[in-house]
Structures are given as C-alpha cells and as structure tokens.
Amino acid sequence: MKSKNLLTALLILVAMFAFTAPVNAGGKVYKIGMSLAITGPTSDAGNPYSKGVEDYFKFVNETKILGNDTIDCTIRDDQYKTDVTKRNFEDFLDEGIVLYLNYSTGSTLGLKRDFEEEKIPVLPASYHAGNLVNSNYIFLPVASYSEQMVALSEYVVKNHKGTKPKVAMFIHPSAFGRGPVADTKKAVAAGLNMEIVEVVEHGKDLDYSAMLKRLMSKGVQYVICHTVQSPVATMLKDSARLGLTASTYGEKGKLTFLGAHYTGGNDLIALAGDACEGYVWSTSFNLTSEENEGTTKQLALAKRYNRDAKAANSHNYAAGIMVAQVTTEAIRRAKAAGLDITKANLYNTLNKMNGKNAYYPYTTIGPVTFSKTDRSGVDMLQIYSVQNGAFKKVGEPIQSEYMKKIK
Predict the structure, then answer these.
(1) Distance from CA of residue 402 to its chain's centroid?
(2) How confident is the model over 326-342, as a mean pLDDT?
(3) In 279-321, at which residue ranges do the beta strands (DSSP E only) sit?
(4) Edge-to-edge strands of the sheet including 99-102?
(5) Is 164 strand, coil or helix?
(6) Under CATH, what is the fold of the domain 146-283+383-406?
(7) Which residues contact 227 (CB under 8 A, 6 or more apart)?
(8) Residue 285 φ/ψ, nearest 5 degrees
(9) DSSP 167-215
C-alpha cells in the first residue's frame, strides 16, 4: 500500500513539474556581450543599433530558432569611451561569453590584442579596414569604410563632367574618421582621376558657413563625408541656406555631397529635411524606403517590440539586427554540426561561411562571406541618393575597383 502511495506521489510531482518547468527546460544558454555608445558621442547610431541587437535576440528566443537553447546577450552603454568598453569586455569574459559584439573604431583597435589573447570572435559596429590588420578574430560585418569611401570617389570620377573633379573630405575627428583617408589618397596615387583639395576634421561647430565658403573659393565641387549624421545634417542645412547645394548631381559652381554608411540613411532625412535632397550615399544595407522582403521583415520586427518609426526605419537598427543574425546563424550551424558552442567552434564556423555556405541575412544587399583570408562580410555596396525626400537606389550593387589595386 505504501509503495502504491509513493508511486502516486511521484506521478503527481512529475505532472506538476511538466506544467511549471520553464519553456526552455533542458535547453542551453549561450552568453553574448555587447558594449556600445547608447548615450554620448555617436549615440544617434549606437542607440538604434542596440535596439536591433536586442530585438533580434528576443525574436530568436521566442520563436525557438535554436530549439530550446537561448541566447542571453548583455548590452552595456560605454558612452564611446574605450576604458569603459575594456571594463565591460572583461566583465563579459567573466560571465563566459562565446562571442563579442563591439562598437567603436577606437575600442576595437584598442582591444585587438585582448581579442587575440582570448581567441574570441568579434563582430564590431566599426567597419574600419585597420581592424583587420594583424588580427585573426575580428570579423567586419560589411564592406569597410575605406571600400565605401574609395567607391564613392570612383562614383564621383565616373559621373563628373569636365576636367579632373576637385574634392574635399569631411571626416570625424577620430580614428573612425581618419581611417579611409589614407586609402582614398592611395587610390588617387594609383590613378583615380580626382584631386583631394582639403581634408576637414569637423569639430562641434553649429555653423559650417565659413568652411563651405572656403571650399567654394578653392574650386571644390564635391564633398565626401565620413562621420555620423548630425554634423552632416548641420552642414547640409548651412549649404542649402547659402544657396551652395547643387540642384542636380555635379552642377558646376555648386557643391554635391556624398557620404559613407554612418553619414546617411533615413536618420539623416529626419535631421536635415529638404536640405539633403540629392545627397549620394553608400551602404551594404537595405533601406526601408525601398520596399522588399528584407525591409518588410525589419519593420515587422520593430512593430513586434513596439519600436517607434525613427528606430524602425533606421539603417543602424538594421545593422544591429544583422550582427545578431550572423551570431545566431553561427550558433545554429555549429549546433547542426554537433559541436559544442565555444569560442573556438564559433570562430571556425564563421570562417567557413563562404561559397555555397555563404549566409544571406534579410538586412543586407548581398551575402555574408568570411574565411581565414577574408574577414569582410558583405562585399557589395549599394549607392543611394535622396530623391523627393527618400533614399532610392542608384543602379545595381557595386564593388570598388581601386581597393583591389591598393590592398
């Protein structure tokens, strides 16, 4: 009788556990860390980027993309301060992270040796080509800033009418801003037919009128920007107010503005309004101003997690989603191969993401391909320009010709 009662009690306990156990009972938890500027300098990019990472990992866990396994990504604000980033990274290591998502150029360069020592794969928000020099563990999600700036320079030359175009570069006063300047100058030295008249490292100016007039006096016709949206928006509004902005691409006696990834997107239109009409921009990401399957999914994700329209339509939100997608896919592939989810196995899995094993995230205009000799993800770039208040595609995706010559 006692044995029967014991059996009954055990069955009741089993039934109770079945109803109260967490949904991922038996599943593993994979730790990821991310440090970035949610506040402070460049937060106009970092804030929506963090939301993209957060939302996609929530989606992964809720929809069981990894079965009962889940991703636990700790996100910390470093305010664009490398010393804070380093402390965050060390804390993440203590938590047992298997992959790290970094942000700024300065901190990525500053922690490069740490990444090598820890042998941990890293996906940064910085697309600085120098991140890959003497590095084995940093994977650029998309084409480097240098690739983008040189491609924009090639676009200037191919579409300019008249003699050699005179160009100014408007850059962020940091390693992030300065990185592509040397490569652009190398492209010119290698035969790219344009003259770099001046390189301007902007400050916190609220008025760029004097600078714009100086560039005009030097015969500059094109300004190629590599910074974040805020200073570009200020400059565009000043140029429009002074009547200096070209009404058509390359208009003689006027300024045509171009820029790389962090200088454009729907965020720029929100800041500059009509003043950014005609602005030419390069990125490897899909934009929600062009309706397609990828942008539909991006907007659906934002709606699922109650993001406002500004975040939902930001290419920085898409960039955050993208690194979370690549991280998830690397884990999924490692699991499918029967591997434990470790730093080493994720590193090797990323390096095999090429050829028939290329990965196609819905956020980008081309596939992600990595190998031990090529750790730049999406190689293709899309040129966009602002037309009637929206960024629209110009031609088909491209790759820089001169970057191949100067590498």
Answers:
(1) 22
(2) 98
(3) 280-283
(4) 70-77, 29-36, 99-102, 122-124
(5) coil
(6) Rossmann fold (3.40.50)
(7) 170, 171, 172, 177, 202, 259, 262, 263
(8) -105, 150
(9) EEEEE-SSHHHHHHHHHHHHHHHTT---EEEEEEE--S-S--HHHHHHH
pLDDT greater at residue 11 or residue 220:
220
d(CA 54, CA 238): 36
Tens-place pLDDT, residues 166-206 = 999 999 998 889 999 999 999 999 999 999 999 999 988 78
Homologous superfamily of 29-143+291-374? Response regulator (3.40.50.2300)
**Same fold for the pair 29-143+291-374 and 146-283+383-406:** yes
Name 195's bridge partners.
166
d(CA 228, CA 245): 20
* Cα–Cα distance, 57 to 70 (Å, whole number): 9
* Residue whose entry in the numeric block shows the structure tokens 């994977």: 139
Residue type (1 letter), 157:
V
Q: Map out the domains of the chain as residue ranges.
A: 29-143+291-374, 146-283+383-406
**Amino acid residing at 55:** D
Q: Are 93 and 74 in contact (CB under 8 A)?
A: no
CB contact at 8 A, 407 and 182: no
pLDDT tens for each residue of 347-366: 999 999 999 999 999 999 99
Q: Is the dihedral of CA 27, 301, 41, 403 positive or negative?
A: positive
From the number of C-beta atoms within 10 Å of its C-beta (0-12, 13-18, 19+), residue 58 rates as middle
